[in-house]
# Entry
Amino acid sequence: MLMTALQTKAKKLPEKPEAEQKGFKAFLKKNVYIIIAFFLPFVLMTIGFAIMEVSPFGDKQILVTDLWHQYYPFLVDFQDKLKNGESLFWSWTQGGGVNYFSLMSYYLAGPMNFLCVFIPSDWLREFLMFSVSAKVAFGGCFTALFLRSVYRKNDFSLVVFGTSFSFCAFFMGYYWNTIWLDTVCITPLVALGIVKFLTEGKFRLFTISLAVSLLSNYYIGLFTCIFVLLIFIAYSIVKWDGFKSFFTKLVKTGLFSLLAIGMTAFFLLPAFFALQNTHATSSTFPSTYAINIGSSNDLLGTLEAMKKIFSNLLTFITPATKEADALPNIACGTVSLVLGILFLTSKKISLKEKIVDGCLVLFMMLSCVIRQLDYIWHGFHFTNMIPYRFSYLISFVIVVMAYRAFMLIDFSTCWDVILAALFSAVIILISIDTQETYAIVGTAVIAALVCIVLFLYTKRIIPKQVLLIVLAVIVIGESGATAYIGVKTTTVTGTYDYPRGEERTEAVIDYMDSLEENTTEMWRAEMTNTQTLNDASLNGYNGLSMFNSMANEDMTIFFQNFGMMGWQSGNRYTYAESSPVTNTFVNLKYLISRDGSYKNTYDLTNTYQIGGVTLLKNEHYLPMGFMVNSDLLKWQVNKNEDQFNPFDQQNEFFKLATGVSENVYDKLEVVSQGHTDYSQFPVNKTSYGNYSYNCTDTTTTPHLKWNYTAPYTGYVYVYADIDGKDDVTLMINDDAANTTNLGMSRPYIACGGYVNEGDKISVYAELPQGQAGNAHVYVNMLNQNVFEQGYANISKDVMTTTELTGSSMKGTINASKDGLFYTSIPNEEGGWKAYVDGKEVNITPVGDALIAFNLSQGEHNIELVYYPKGFKPGAVASAICVLGFAAICAYVYIIKKKKGETVAKEVTPVTTAPPAKAKKAKSKKK
# Structure
């Protein structure tokens, strides 16, 4: 397979007359099988979607899991930015503001995404579906190109084996993870590039394809780099030519690899710095031998794990889609399985080649098992869901091994085939206690058929054309079935009500935008509750919520402390209808209720309504940038989740910012309880609002209920974090008509609505059977007098925005006294710069998260400018590497080539007649 290509230089195909080499027909004739290797998988994958009624073939869509919450909403926003020529450095849309360059580097940099600029917005979902089919198809097309270029074979077999890679289990299980597919399908080009570089010294394809691989997705690009290293090591073993040759090739490979990486520095260096602001997993390198999959951390456990991995080579298995404990997706079809084994049994293939290729596959399989190797592969981290993300490389190597065996089928004996059949049977048999019966039987029947036709061919009972036709029919049939299984397993969702409210929500947002058509300042809007975790990107407004693997952890911690939803390890923070205090300090101007319901009637005014979708205006909105007391810099966040009371945190924040000495929230004490009987379910108070509980009888299905009394008429707010329960019920006077369900999967300060003095307020939660754990339940009321007093203090001195771009802001402010200029813009060290009257000032972020700086009394011009940290030095490095690469290309392919032609002309006699001499020489030999 790969090692054969490295071991010997392939002979060049005979050159055709120049007239035959030019023109479209000649191109088509030469590349017809490469083209088919694209269109066949494209059609089969599209048929798989069509069977599942994915639009435009029905009313379904491929949006599931993160494709629903992240990738598609980000693509919607990306298309809008491209069409409107907006800044790609920063975005106001997501998360209150985000480093868009880093977001692009992980989610949007795939080449095909840029084509969305030519697609109507209403067809973006269909474009996404067809782009998935295209990426699956490109995987097969580029594999076919690899096989043709390396092995100098140009027939329908390229289509057969290219299609095998297109429909490998990795593509079928993870096609919803669209952000990875570009780099995965480019991998065969990188492999071809390194092969050509090591064997022929050709470096252009290797350098460019590696750079594109990293640009498309740096995370999967890491696996590409490791694969390049493995190929180099394998080459050095197979083609050992002394230390001098080894180090020469090592230096050259390193040089062009660095050039490829350097060419991407303008993009990847900012991504690197942005990663330093994200949540770092607590996983560490295992200090002792540890394994995945197996039941024990020893040799027997390792063998057990390898047995399960080999069983996952079967066809028709259900691919893993997101399960953390799943087996690696490595299946690539029965034909590749049998011929891959035939590669190892064929006597025509050297023992060294078999050992190197076999060890390469085994090493990658063991990397799925041994946690130390798994840790290294994934960038010195353990993955959060979706394990073994490099497993597609195993499939690629097996496909290439299978093709190598097929090329040498003329030299294989019937005994080679019998041995391959026996080993295939072993793999099928060890799968009995791991895989489903239908997959075992299906693979066994098809494997038997493959072995029979291979056996018949080795006996020359059937011609090779028949062999190829049978294998092609099998691969096409399997691929179609695999596509259907993959789409069915991953599932589809309905296009109806996505985005929620559809035309009605769109009309409300359009009306909201029309109200602010002449507004210069940066204002925000949000939904009262979320549909996706990136509703702002999906619906097209500047919001607060965001789920993004590149999320700034400081913002997540701020959200948690300020009584909004946040999840550090989940890389997300989310807004839901909260309090006037929250809304004011995050510059929230509008709320949209898609079902027409809302609880805060105190300062939210119904501005517009259509079909139940309601636009609410915040009457206590403050523009971006206003003066607060400098004491606010004393406010500190608690980075330990569940170890603080967010009402206390907001009280402190409000007092420091406004100078008002009283709390803006008044805490309510529990006056009675209505839990399950204490003898069955003891609930014990550990401190204010904090409780522990357990079931003395694990068959008990318990419930919790705390009762409070409203001390005055006003608005009640609830924060509840209860183990075993993602939502709680708020009841007023035990009235079923005055009951509200509050989603608390991530706890937040939720508005419970208006209550009268003396009303009974109850927080109720039904728990799972036998549940034990802890609860943090806080009920407070808003002190409206204190809030109005504080609001009056901070609303006096606000900035008038004079200019706003995608990554900068200018304005003027007249500060009545010295204080702190406060914004709710997420700070990013080294990215944002602040200028007062043309002079740069130090940013002193509030809560380590929000941009603020000290400002003296008087009139001032304010300017905030953003560039991603690392972009400028990265751009310089990229420019140097691109120029260096261009200079090397010019020298090797232009200057050196011309010198060679000149020398050839000088040493060639003008009057020679080589054809006649050649004929005489041939006649003598005869």
